[in-house]
């Protein structure tokens, strides 16, 4: 069932040939972890690309005085991991943590590289997924730099309203670039 979900997800990204789909899906291994599990630590190189089957995760940066900045949330069905570290095989600046108990499929960097060399369609699909992630990251920059707190909050609700009840509000506030007190005030003034 998990691999069927992965297959459906990748076919929405790119029209892989049947043999490419079979080869891509075959190498993914299941992983189940508890909530508050650190999957990737800042300073280590991301070795896996994850496909989220169940649960919510976040990537976060730990700044001075242990101030956390949540960068992104991931949830099913989507890829997860510290993308820049994975793609460049350089040490991560971020942590990847499960917020809730989570189930994944995962594939190693080496396995994915081999598949991309062997199957041009897989390489194109990964390129398309990476391009979409970059586009999303750049749009997030615009939101953080140009939107008011209310606009950022409303945009989040349009994109991912379900996380409001699943993710601690301090993480959402951090993701939106505001302190928890302002987030609480905003939450009380906006009709959901």
| Sheet with the most strands, sense and barrel status | 4 strands, antiparallel
Percent range of helical residues: 40-55%
Radius of gyration, whole Å: 17 Å
Overall average pLDDT: 95
CATH architecture annotation of the domain at 2-115? Sandwich
Strand tally, please? 8
Structural class: alpha+beta
* Total number of helices: 8
Q: What's the CATH class label of the domain at 2-115?
A: Mainly Beta
**CATH topology-level name of the domain at 2-115:** Jelly Rolls
Q: Superfamily at the CATH H level of the domain at 2-115?
A: Jelly Rolls
- The ordered H/E elements are HHEEEEEEHEEHHHHH
Distance between the termini: 34 Å
Can you give me a brief rundown of this structure?
The protein is of the alpha+beta class and about 190 residues long. It has a domain at about 1-115: Jelly Rolls (Sandwich), CATH 2.60.120.10.
Describe it for me?
The chain is α+β, with helices and mostly antiparallel strands and 192 residues long. The chain has a domain of 114 residues: Sandwich (Jelly Rolls), CATH 2.60.120. Helices cover 49% and strands 22% of the residues. The chain has a four-stranded antiparallel β-sheet with strand order 1-8-3-6. The protein has a four-stranded antiparallel β-sheet with strand order 2-7-4-5. Strand 4 and strand 5 form a beta hairpin. Helix 1 crosses helix 2 and helix 4 crosses helix 5. It is globular and about 55 Å long.
Could you give the topology of this structure?
Blueprint: H1 2-13, H2 18-26, E1 29-33, E2 38-40, E3 48-54, E4 57-62, E5 68-74, E6 78-80, H3 83-88, E7 95-98, E8 102-108, H4 109-118, H5 120-146, H6 149-160, H7 169-176, H8 180-189
Antiparallel strand pairs: 1-8, 2-7, 3-6, 3-8, 4-5, 4-7
Helix pairs in contact: 1-2, 4-5, 7-8
């Amino acid at each position: 069932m998990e691999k069927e979900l992965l297959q459906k997800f990748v076919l929405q990204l790119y029209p892989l040939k049947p043999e490419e789909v079979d080869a891509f899906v075959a190498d993914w291994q299941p992983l189940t972890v508890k909530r508050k599990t650190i999957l990737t630590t800042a300073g280590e190189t991301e070795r896996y690309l994850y496909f989220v089957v169940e649960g919510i995760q976040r990537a976060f940066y730990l700044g001075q005085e242990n101030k956390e900045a949540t960068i992104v949330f991931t949830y099913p069905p989507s890829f997860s991991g510290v993308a820049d570290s994975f793609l460049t095989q350089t040490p991560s600046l971020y942590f990847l943590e499960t917020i809730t108990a989570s189930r994944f499929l995962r594939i190693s960097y080496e396995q994915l590289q081999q598949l991309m060399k062997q199957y041009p369609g897989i390489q194109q699909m990964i390129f398309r997924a990476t391009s979409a992630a970059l586009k999303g990251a750049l749009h997030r920059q615009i939101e953080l730099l140009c939107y008011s707190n209310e606009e950022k909050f409303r945009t989040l609700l349009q994109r991912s309203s379900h996380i409001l009840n699943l993710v601690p509000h301090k993480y959402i506030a951090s993701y939106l670039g505001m302190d928890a007190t302002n987030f609480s005030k905003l939450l009380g003034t906006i009709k959901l």
